[in-house]
């Protein structure tokens, strides 16, 4: 099952060795350990641009992982792959599933907002102004949530909210 490390990156190799040691020490079930190995192999494949392999590993990890918090990160990474491949509707599905399991994922909220914003811009190009307005409203909603969770991040989103008259509170 372990993925061959194509990357000779010292940090990646160190992480793999440390993760293996921690997994041997921690009192986790066989399924949890196996799920982590698939997740780790998925991250490794994803970082190398091997998206099909990464998805296979993430789907295997989802079959084994029961912890909602850990599942949220697997779902988030699946969403990243679909988004990077231009499959925005599929990406949204996985991001929303991740957010349902873990409401403290500002990066998923941001990515949802980015997709809605992109869809709003596309709607303007097609002169579908009502759809554009709806997409921008959704985008603002998700960016506000992301900024609330991570107030020092998403500066461009904060500027967009201000310049478009969509107020947000950090309180």
UniProtKB/TrEMBL annotation:
Gene3D superfamilies: Tetratricopeptide repeat domain
PROSITE patterns hit by this protein: TPR, TPR_REGION
UniProt entry keywords in alphabetical sequence: Chloroplast, Membrane, Photosynthesis, Plastid, Repeat, Thylakoid, TPR repeat
TPR repeats: 35-68, 35-68, 72-105, 72-105, 120-153
Top-level lineage group: Eukaryota
Gene Ontology CC terms, in alphabetical order: chloroplast thylakoid membrane
Pfam families: TPR_1
Keyword Membrane part of the UniProt annotation: yes
Keyword Plastid included in the entry's annotation: yes
One GO-annotated biological process of the protein: photosynthesis
UniProt-listed InterPro entries: PSI_Ycf3_assembly, TPR-like_helical_dom_sf, TPR_rpt
Membrane-related topology note: Peripheral membrane protein
Compartments, record wording: Plastid, Chloroplast thylakoid membrane
SMART domains the UniProt entry points to: TPR (SM00028)
Biological role stated in the UniProt entry: Seems to be required for the assembly of the photosystem I complex.
Family: Belongs to the Ycf3 family.
Protein name in UniProt: Photosystem I assembly protein Ycf3
This protein's encoding gene: ycf3
């Amino acid at each position: 099952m372990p993925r061959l490390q194509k990357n000779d990156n010292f940090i990646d190799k160190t992480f793999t060795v440390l993760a293996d040691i921690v997994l041997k020490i921690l009192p986790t079930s066989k399924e949890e350990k196996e799920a982590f190995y698939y997740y780790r192999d998925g991250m490794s494949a994803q970082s190398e641009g091997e998206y099909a392999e990464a998805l296979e590993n993430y789907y295997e990890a989802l079959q084994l992982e029961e912890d909602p918090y850990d599942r949220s990160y697997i779902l988030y990474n699946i969403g990243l792959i679909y988004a990077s491949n231009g499959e925005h509707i599929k990406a949204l599905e996985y991001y929303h599933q991740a957010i349902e399991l873990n409401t403290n994922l500002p990066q998923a909220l941001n990515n949802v907002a980015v997709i809605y914003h992109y869809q709003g811009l596309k709607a303007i190009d097609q002169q579908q102004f009502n759809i554009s307005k709806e997409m921008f409203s959704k985008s603002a909603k998700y960016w506000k949530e992301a900024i609330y969770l991570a107030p020092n991040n998403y500066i461009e989103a904060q500027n967009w909210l201000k310049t478009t008259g969509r107020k947000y509170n950090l309180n």
